[in-house]
Amino acid sequence: MKFAPLMRAALLVSAMAVLPAATSGLAAVDSRVNPEFDKLFHIYALIKDNYVDQVDDDKLLKGAIDGMLASLDPHSNYLDGPSLQRLETMIDGNYSGLGLSVVEDEGAVKIIAPFKGSPAEKAGLKAGDYITHLDGVLYYERDLDEAVSKMRGAAGTSIKLTIYRPGRDEPFDVTVTRGVIELEPVTWELKENVGYISVNEFSRDVGVDVAKAITDLRKQAATKGTGPMVGLVLDLRQNPGGSLDEAVALSDLFLDKGVIVSQRGRRASENQFYRAETMFKGDALKGTPIAVLVDAGSASASEIVAGALQDQHRAVIMGERTFGKGSVQSFLPLDRTSAIKLTTARYYTPSGHSVQEGGIEPDIEVPQLSDPDARLRAERAVRESDLRGHLINEAGLEDKDLESDKTDDPRFAATPKELEAQGIKDFQLHYAISTLQRTAGKPAALAAAAKPVSPNPAATKAPAKKD
Question: Which of 130, 207, 353, 453 is buried deepest, with most CB atoms within 10 A?
Answer without folding.
Answer: 207
